[in-house]
Write a structure and sequence with these properties.
With about 575 residues, this protein is an alpha/beta fold. Helices cover about 25% and strands about 25% of the residues. Helix 3 (about 75-95) runs parallel beside helix 4. The protein is globular.
């Protein structure tokens, strides 16, 4: 069999001030055809898994480009299109193929493209035709769109958060993709919208048991794969939110029923899943209390929203400034993103004592810069840390110690969240010698740090991450979800959706409809459809929102859309 594989991935925070361009991909990870290392990155596991199986099974594996950018803001349009076309051209050159198996993320958004992965997969399908198997692995902090489901035969997402299973799930996708290409299975995809968005860590209950039950379903009674798409709340895209995806062996009815059953169970758990999150002050109070009774291990404070893995800069100073104000003097900090400060430290050299301004440069939300006299303890041209079987680069880095303390701060050039304790030890800091380890990560750090921590404390300090979806100014979200709506299941679904604008010249018969069905204070509104999609209850628009309540029929014309109602108590509420 001939198998084409490639990987194009990043996670886009559409609210982030950090743009993503070609250099962002090349700085984090870029491997041309056949140049991928033997260890996988977060989203390129299928390439490594296929390479390992090729010799044993007589497969011909054609490797395309594999690239990853650290999560950030919108991807530059030219960058996305160039990388997409690079992979598509490689696929065309590889034809004929029996299967295409990709490593994607699922939350990439570019200028002009709300659904990069859907766009890529749709184009892949157009190239290979309807009979070639298309399979892909995804990160669960992503979005599920109809375009992706239509293009793919097999989709599977990491089940764990932290994502300790990314290689295992890559092998899972490869196994199913090859089985489908051999004709041994006929995969069918079912999905269910949970109408919610929430933090869903599998390192704690109730998600631990929920995911364990999902794993037990695999390979039984025709169920090939089950995934939970957590969603990514930092993206303003129509399909943002949590979903269940089930792949069955040609049993759509079973898949639909199972997806709905699991989805409703997950919705019922929605208020129990998130970690306890404290303010910076309360978190430090708790850390000092723990340290007073537990001095054998450091306390870990996770600054969860200043997390580069969520697309923010990662140069926040709020928690560190509070630790210094409280007189905490034995602290390890991983990391503060500040390429300028790194340059100054490299120029000064190891052992130099300098006055340094660091952190707080990308924006005011996560704190002001810290000005301190520091000793440059260490400089390196490439700091790094482990993440499962992969190696994550920090780029040129430096360690500085703040005067009259043992507060050691890792400054890095390549933005990255904290994954493992070796982020400290690789650059000369003994993490076990500190009272407090301050790290920038939401939960990916957990597997590595839990064994060395007296306690893990989650601190929700201010940052540029939109951490409260109930209040975030989403303009493209196309349906009611919890916690924005107390009970989204009570919301009716209208028969039409799209990006819309007000019609400047609604047809005359629509005006008559308005007068007939509405009192003067509740005139019917008219809208022009720009991009039809699927049914929702709330339609976003440049000047507000409107909701179709009750039973309604949309009347289309060349000029716009009117709404005819069948019950007099039902109307449009315009906002």
């Amino acid at each position: 069999m001939r198998i084409f594989t490639a990987s194009l991935a990043t996670e886009t925070n559409t609210f982030s001030p950090v743009p993503t361009d070609r250099a962002s991909f090349e700085m984090a990870f870029y491997a041309g055809p056949g140049k991928h290392p033997e260890t996988p990155t977060l989203c390129s596991s299928p390439i490594v898994a296929l390479r390992k199986r090729a010799a044993k099974e007589g497969l011909t594996v054609i490797e395309g480009t594999a690239t990853w950018a650290e999560p950030g803001g919108l991807v530059q349009r030219q960058t996305y299109e160039a990388l997409r076309n690079e992979i598509l051209d490689q696929l065309k050159a590889a034809l004929p193929v029996d299967a295409v198996i990709l490593g994607l993320h699922g939350a990439m958004v570019a200028q002009g493209y709300d659904d990069c992965e859907g766009d890529l997969l749709e184009r892949v399908r157009a190239i290979v035709g309807p009979k070639v198997v298309i399979a892909s692995e995804f990160d669960p902090h992503s979005h599920l769109t109809p375009k992706r489901v239509a293009a793919c035969d097999i989709m599977a997402y990491f089940l764990e958060f932290p994502h300790t299973d990314f290689y295992e799930r890559g092998e899972h996708v490869v196994e199913l993709g090859l089985a489908a290409a051999r004709g041994e299975i006929k995969p069918v995809i079912s999905t269910f919208d949970c109408r919610m968005i929430q933090v869903l860590p599998t390192s704690r209950e109730p998600m631990r048991s929920f995911v364990d039950r999902i794993k037990a379903l695999h390979g039984k009674d025709g169920v090939l794969s089950v995934s939970v798409i957590h969603g990514f709340m930092a993206a303003d895209v129509p399909e943002m939110g949590t979903r269940i995806l089930v792949v069955t062996d040609n049993d759509k009815a079973k898949g639909d029923a199972l997806a709905e059953k699991l989805g409703r169970e997950l919705y019922a758990l929605r208020e129990q899943t998130a970690m306890t999150m404290l303010s910076a002050q309360a978190g430090i109070d708790q850390a000092l209390g723990v340290r007073a009774t537990r001095q054998d291990k450091p306390v870990v404070i996770a600054d969860i929203w200043d997390n580069p893995g969520g697309g923010v800069p990662g140069d926040g100073t709020i928690v560190l400034r509070e630790l210094l104000a409280r007189g905490v003097t034995k602290v390890g900090v991983a990391t503060i993103w500040d390429p300028i400060a790194v340059t100054f430290c490299h120029a000064a050299g190891e052992g130099a004592v300098i006055d340094l301004r660091f952190g707080g440069k990308a924006g005011p939300q996560a704190g002001e810069p810290i000005d301190a006299r520091v000793t440059v303890l260490k400089t390196t041209n490439e700091g790094w840390q482990s993440f499962g079987p992969s190696r994550v680069t920090l780029g040129p880095s430096a360690v500085v110690r703040i005067e009259a303390t043992e507060v050691d701060v890792i400054l890095n050039t390549n933005r990255t969240q904290t994954f493992e304790p070796d982020v400290f030890s690789n650059i000369g800091i003994d993490p076990l010698a500190k009272d407090v380890l301050l790290i920038k990560s939401t939960n990916h750090f957990y597997a590595g740090f839990a064994p060395i921590a007296a306690e893990i404390i989650y601190v929700a300090a201010p940052s540029s991450y939109p951490s409260n979806p109930a209040k975030t100014d989403y303009r493209k979200l196309n349906r009611a979800i919890w916690p924005r709506v107390a009970d989204p299941w009570k919301q009716p679904i209208s028969p039409l959706v799209g990006e819309i604008s007000q019609s400047h010249q609604p047809p005359l018969h629509h005006h008559r409809l308005g007068r007939r069905h509405f009192p003067p204070e509740r005139r019917v509104q008219f809208f022009r459809i720009l991009r039809p999609a699927r049914g929702i209850d709330v339609l976003p628009q440049p000047f507000g929102q409107f909701r179709i309540e009750g039973i309604a029929r949309l009347l289309e014309s060349r000029e716009g859309v009117g709404v005819e109602h069948f019950r007099p108590h039902v109307g449009i509420v315009a906002g």
